[in-house]
Write a structure and sequence with these properties.
By secondary structure, the chain is of the alpha/beta class. Helices cover 43% and strands 10% of the residues. The chain is built from 10 helices and 4 strands, in the order E-H-E-H-H-E-H-H-E-H-H-H-H-H.
Length: 216
Amino acid sequence: MTVVGLVVEGTLDFPIIGAFLEAELPETFARPIRLKHLQPVPDAASGGYSGGGWGRVVGWCKAHHADGIETYFNPIEEEDVVCDLIVVQIDGDAMTPCSDHASFEAPSETCSIEERIESLEKMVLEWLAPTPARVSQIRFAFPTMHSEAWLLAGLKPNEAPWENEADAKTPFRALKPAQPKMNMASWYKIKSEEVGPLGDIIAPQSRSFSSFRDNL
């Protein structure tokens, strides 16, 4: 069993990134995977989660700087969570504000997709400061703008340049049927499970998804 820790912006990102990992990683590792939610943090008392947003991802990474991230791979206490991989997700539209918390400036918002991904990757590695031996156990999910764009590329392939859609959340949520018993969280889960296995359809439309997939 491969245990994958997820550090994502919000609870609606869990099913999106999780579905793609469940579709792609078993082939990579030739064994099943188990997803562990690290951020947003599960709240045992309420049964819900802590707040989300890119700022919470930055905060989590900084709180687990160096020795903190090492405990997920080499636990100190018996009850500590043990991960084989940790996947960090940040929507690419947060690159510039995220750079306010880094030691270097982000490139211009007109930069290439590859430059955006590289900048976010450098930021996360700076915040976490893993040992060289652990860098390969940290993977990245950086949609160019929003993670919903990856879902739209699977649901409505080639109908629009979803990769660069400034607000992919709106057209994705507009697809939800008006069923009172189906909340938004259920809609995300259903559609993520539907699209998760469609990587071969999404990759030609999305360089950010290809980067995520190629580096798993």
